[in-house]
Amino acid sequence: MNLSVSDVENYLEAVKCAVKAHRYRLDMNAKRPDNRKLFDTYLLTMRDAEKIILDLNAMDFSDAVPNEHVGFEHETLYIFCLLYTSPAHETELHLVC
Fold this sequence. Notes:
Blueprint: H1 5-20, H2 33-41, H3 46-55, E1 61-66, E2 76-85, E3 90-96
Antiparallel strand pairs: 1-2, 2-3
């Protein structure tokens, strides 16, 4: 998907507003094992996840792809890549929002 920097900035603004207003959720259920693995591998807390999301900027944007999960094909997934230092180690994270 071909997005402008402005498109990504607008998307991030909406996501950050949702995070600040506690109108978002990070699913940790059986359908989202990668989320649980991310938290377990990098020793993340929900507060860490909020901070990571709030620190994202348009330069962290990597790609936007259609959601392939059944029932969610209408959604676009935005992929961001950033350097994150966790209590476990410093690593490059690939986040899908």
